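Tip: read the tokens left to right.
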């Protein structure tokens, strides 16, 4: 069967119209996208052999590859793509492939669990998505625990790299790193921005890394069909940054599609449930500036990789350490010891011990970077106070203390010496 130029052009246009809707339109992969992905793969041979061309200004942003050796950074694979797609979709000269179309295609190609496309498969995926240009990159571990993000732009028709760049910095500066990558992509595509558009694109999706991480996890949950968990993460993202519009839109989408229960339905369900122990009050949200309290994890289906919110939070600079355990004797003796365990690796400074006259009889040591041990040998009964408020973690964040945690005070009873 022969294919006329008209047919070839119409087929390419059809693929493009299906795959290049505005990127921020949706975060839920629907049956429509899944049907499109199947059709695109079925038509692949015909289109490739007949040379159907994609629009020259069409661009697909693939997920980034985590090569840092740290599984806890894996949510950035999809998250960086989300940030770039959202920004690039605002550039009028470009037609950016919608993320859910790409996700549906990756699922159909059985790459959905990892979301990763190797270098040899990039051109094929780009053609299936109807994109003339494809950008992706790697997440690397740089010097001094910094994050490095490399990115490149592949021109598919010319089969050559149109541009490459690397951005490096702390995870807390994620929004700034994304902007470096963004403007380099735009330069690589030889696009000139107006001053107004450049100013618009310089505005961060969010300056809150915890908000962005919660958003990324919400999108990952949504892709796996775990919509209630996705909604919790979107709500958490909005707790961290109430102005994060993409999280608002994603949450509203779940509600509008009836994929999550309304508050009324949840209340009715609770009323109809059998009596049980009262649930702990949730309060108004999670502690400011942190997603640790959510207690949710993300198991990537088929990948065997666990993305714990707590593990990700360990990488965020600015999160204060806390005391997680104090192990002191119920009845302290003349010669005894206690330990204080912290949530983060700490600088090896020491607590302030009082009364001061016993300091020569007290020793302090770090049994690990998170655990301080205090030992003593005293000659009389007394009250000892251990003040740890001066301690800081290795990122120089001051210890965060609840009202009853500092100072740590208890009585030492020297019975053997009082007899």
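Filled-in amino acids:
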């Amino acid at each position: 069967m022969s294919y006329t130029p008209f047919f070839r052009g119409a087929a390419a246009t059809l693929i493009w119209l299906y795959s290049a809707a505005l990127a921020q339109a949706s975060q839920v992969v629907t049956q429509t996208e899944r049907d499109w992905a199947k059709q695109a793969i079925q038509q692949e041979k015909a289109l490739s052999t007949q040379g159907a061309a994609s629009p020259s200004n069409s661009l697909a942003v693939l997920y980034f590859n985590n090569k840092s050796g740290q599984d806890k950074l894996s949510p950035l694979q999809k998250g960086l793509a989300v940030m770039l797609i959202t920004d690039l979709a605002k550039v009028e000269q470009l037609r950016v492939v919608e993320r859910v179309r790409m996700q549906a295609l990756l699922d159909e190609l059985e790459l959905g669990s990892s979301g990763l496309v190797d270098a040899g498969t990039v051109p094929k995926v780009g053609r299936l998505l109807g994109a003339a240009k494809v950008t992706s990159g790697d997440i690397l571990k740089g010097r001094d625990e910094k994050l490095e993000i490399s990115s490149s732009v592949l021109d598919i028709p010319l089969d050559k790299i149109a541009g490459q760049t690397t951005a490096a910095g702390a995870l807390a500066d994620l929004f700034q790193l994304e902007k470096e990558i963004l403007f380099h992509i735009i330069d690589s595509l030889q696009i000139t921005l107006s001053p107004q558009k450049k100013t618009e694109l310089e505005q961060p999706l969010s300056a809150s890394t915890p908000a962005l991480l919660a958003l990324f996890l919400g999108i990952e949950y949504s892709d796996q069909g775990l919509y209630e968990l996705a909604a919790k993460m979107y709500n958490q993202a909005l707790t961290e940054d109430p102005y994060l519009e993409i999280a608002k839109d994603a949450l509203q989408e779940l509600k509008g599609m009836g994929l999550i229960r309304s508050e009324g339905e949840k209340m009715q369900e609770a009323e109809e449930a059998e009596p049980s122990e009262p649930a702990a009050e949730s309060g108004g949200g999670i502690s400011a500036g942190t997603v640790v309290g959510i207690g949710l994890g993300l198991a990537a289906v088929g990948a065997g990789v666990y993305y714990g919110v707590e593990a990700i939070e360990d990488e965020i600079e600015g999160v204060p350490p806390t005391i997680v355990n104090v192990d002191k004797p119920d009845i302290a003796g003349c010669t005894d010891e206690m330990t204080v365990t912290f949530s983060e690796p700490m600088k090896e400074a020491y607590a302030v011990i009082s009364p001061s006259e016993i300091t020569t009889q007290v020793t302090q040591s770090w049994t690990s970077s998170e655990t301080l041990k205090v030992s003593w040998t005293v000659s009389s009964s007394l009250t000892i106070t251990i003040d740890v408020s001066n301690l800081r973690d290795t990122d120089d964040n001051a210890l965060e203390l609840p009202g009853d945690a500092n100072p740590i005070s208890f009585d030492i009873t020297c019975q053997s010496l009082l007899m």
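The CA atoms of residues 45 and 345 lie 55 Å apart. Residues 323-418 form a domain with the Immunoglobulin-like fold (CATH 2.60.40).
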